[in-house]
Amino acid sequence: MGGRDLTGDTAEALAVRFGDHLAHDRRRSPHTVRAYQATAHRFIGFMARHRGEAIGRYALLTIAPADLRGFLAARRSEGLGPSSAARELSAVRAFLKFAADDLGEQPQLPRTRAPKRPRTLPRPASPADAMALAEDAGEAATEPWIGARDLAVLLLLYGSGLRVAEAMSLTARVLPLGSTLRVVGKRSKPRVVPLIPAVREAIDAYVKQCPWPVRGSSPLFLGARGGPLNPDLVRRAAQAARRRLGLPDTLTPHALRHSFATHLLARGADLRSLQELLGHASLSSTQIYTGVDAARLLDVYRHAHPRA
Questions:
Q1: How far apart are the C-alpha atoms of 268 and 45, rounded to whole Å?
Q2: Which entry of 17, 93, 97, 186 is annotated as an active-site residue?
Q3: Is 257 assigned a catalytic role?
Q4: What span, in angstroms and rounded, lies between the C-alpha atoms of 233 and 214?
């Protein structure tokens, strides 16, 4: 790197451009952009303390495996779990690759092993609990149209297996609803999901009651002031409902998606079809649901078999 100034152009400025790159060039979700950019800034701060000097963008080309291990050790000491630490490492690697590309250099990413992630099984809700959660959230809302909206959103997550962000990204162009719905998922990958009558009826009822115009390119699900619905409000409505009903904390809006997958698998859906419905990039992401179903069967066996 002969004679290059290692501190003249700040790495912090590069981290800002990294966020723009993720949002506009890679079309990552706002949540991913925020998380990856925050990791980039954390890593720069760690390296400045580690080396005792300001970090310029050229210094990012000199990162060694020991630097990454030190950063991960520091993050783990702050209470970061294995899965989160693995995501943190992935974000740092993406940032270092962007830094090399930005400088016109060949990326030479330092090798270090990611923390081993525990293989945890999603915890699905029973159909009765999923419906009770949605109905209670709808009944507890401050206004009837907001209750109709919350009911429609939660039923959509369970009935069609959507991620919360996918439901929030729907626009009024999906109206009038049919038996299927086209959804754009992670990395702008489109897929078609089923719409059962109960979900269609709930969405139609919400649209009829909504005091704001739901048409054209406006979001399908609107907030109290007519703007896009904040996904945190969906999570809070579900949290309040499960507390009132005495349901487990694991019954989150995202758990409704897990429940959708598990219940389909239990009724004979094959993994390849389930992969398409969930929008998973690889079949390995879908195969975890075989463990969920096996766990359910073992539980039934233990409670029902006379010699279990």
A1: 51
A2: 186
A3: yes
A4: 19
Question: CATH classification of 11-102 is 1.20.5, yes or no?
Answer: no
- Among left, alpha and beta (phi > 0; psi -120 to 50; other), residue 182 is beta
Evaluate the omega torsion of the peptide bond into residue 176 and state whether it is cis, within 30 degrees of 0. yes
The residues, ordered by sequence, that sit 6+ positions from 115 with a Cβ below 8 Å of its Cβ are 72, 76, 82, 83, 85, 86, 89
Give the architecture-level CATH label for domain 127-304.
Answer: Orthogonal Bundle (1.10)
Whole-angstrom distance, CA of residue 222 vs CA of residue 171: 10
Query: Cα(216)–Cα(213) distance, rounded to whole angstroms?
Result: 9
Confirm whether 263 is a catalytic residue: no
Per residue in 241-273, pLDDT tens? Answer: 988 888 888 889 988 988 888 888 777 777 777
Catalytic residue at 173? no
* Catalytic residue (choose from 163, 200, 242, 258): 163
Give the model confidence (pLDDT) of 58-74 as tens digits.
888 888 888 888 888 88
For the chain, domain boundaries? 11-102, 127-304
CB hemisphere CA count around 308 (13 angstroms): 10
Task: Tell me, yes or no, if 254 is annotated catalytic.
Answer: yes
